[in-house]
Specification:
InterPro entries: Fatty_acid_hydroxylase, Sterol_Desaturase_Related. The chain has 325 residues and is an all-alpha fold. It has 12 helices and no strands. The chain is elongated, with a radius of gyration of 22 Å. The structure holds zinc ion (ZN) (2 copies).
């Protein structure tokens, strides 16, 4: 893809000095000039990135699920998703991307322009500016998600919206966005909100938001992977949630509402059952004489948590029935 600064379609960049651009900025300009319409160019690059990153990041987890060697690190080792389950999930997620996300992506550019976000513009912000802004987006999203996710566990919102995401009590990478369209919209506001808010205080470039969404997709898919490896990020950064944290939420239908970090669940006490579970597993490990004995005890504890979780889920729905009767 190339561009010509004297091209009549190139009204976005009058007088641009091409020699001053980095490789990435050059490609960015070429993309916008090639489309000739910034709304479509922003929408298309967002949609393509989302599809490539979402399915591209999920494929390694599909391969991991197919290799028995990795079961030793599976958080719920007896719950391996079948190829049929994974295919059903792909179809559902793809359908939602095309029917719900694709049209809403087209609203992004006008909204970004409205709050003053730079989109097709070059040069890009410095790496240090992008880094602190992405850190802010992450912090904002994590807090927003904790609060919105708690609300999604109230009877009405759970039954009509969030229950779909809890279809898998043992999640897998592809299931990260397996959710009701309203949930995708509500939680998507957390991903988007930080960048919109920040625009009122400082200059924000779409490229920072773009990189943040890639980071967010990796975080969401990996936290649904169902695997906790010794080299997983949470073992290096203890405040990182990771799969070990979110897998419990799916198994127990409660606790661990945040996405990236553990601190809000700790501060607001929404991780008590999770810690009790970890303590039981730790005690079982200390007591067991062999690995097989420990695996059996761990499985029993997980089965109890899952059974309690199903009761919790039923209780939420029962509260709704009581209210409406
Ligand atoms: Zn939930
Ligand atoms: Zn989830």
């Amino acid at each position: 893809m190339s561009f010509n600064t004297t091209d009549t379609s190139n009204t976005l960049y009058p007088g641009l000095d091409v020699s001053s651009l980095s490789w990435a900025e050059h490609k960015w300009v070429a993309w916008y000039v090639w489309w000739g319409n910034p709304v479509i160019a922003t929408g298309m690059i967002s949609f393509l990135m989302h599809e490539i990153v979402y399915f591209g990041r999920s494929i390694p987890w599909v391969i991991v699920d197919a290799i028995p060697y990795f079961r030793r690190w599976k958080l719920q080792p007896n719950k391996i998703p079948s190829p049929e389950e994974q295919w059903d999930c792909v179809k559902q997620v793809l359908w939602a991307h095309i029917t719900v996300e694709l049209p809403t992506i087209w609203l992004f550019h006008p909204m970004a322009e409205f709050v003053g976000m730079k989109t097709y513009h070059v040069p890009f912000p410095s790496l240090s500016t992008m880094a602190w802004q992405i850190a802010f987006f992450m912090f904002f999203e994590d807090l927003f998600h904790w609060a919105a996710h708690r609300l999604l566990h109230t009877p009405l919102l759970y039954k009509y919206i969030h229950k779909i995401h809890h279809h898998y009590a043992a999640p897998f990478g592809l299931a990260a966005e397996y959710a009701h369209p309203a949930e995708v919209f509500i939680l998507g506001m957390g991903t988007l909100g930080g960048s919109l808010v920040l625009c009122f205080f400082t200059e924000v470039h779409f490229v920072s938001f773009f990189i943040w969404v890639i980071v967010k997709l990796f975080q969401a898919i990996d936290s649904h992977s169902g695997y906790d490896f010794p080299w997983s990020l949470q073992h290096i950064l203890p405040f990182w949630s990771g799969a070990e944290h979110h897998d419990f939420h799916h198994m127990a239908f409660t606790d661990n509402y945040a996405t990236s970090f553990r601190w809000w669940d700790t501060i607001f006490g929404t991780d008590k059952k999770y810690h009790a579970y970890r303590a039981r597993v730790k005690a079982a490990k200390a007591k067991a004489a062999t690995l097989a004995e420990f695996s059996k005890a761990e499985q029993e504890i997980a089965n109890q948590v899952l059974a309690e979780g199903l009761k919790t889920e039923a209780a939420i729905e029962a509260r709704l029935k009581k209210k409406s009767s």
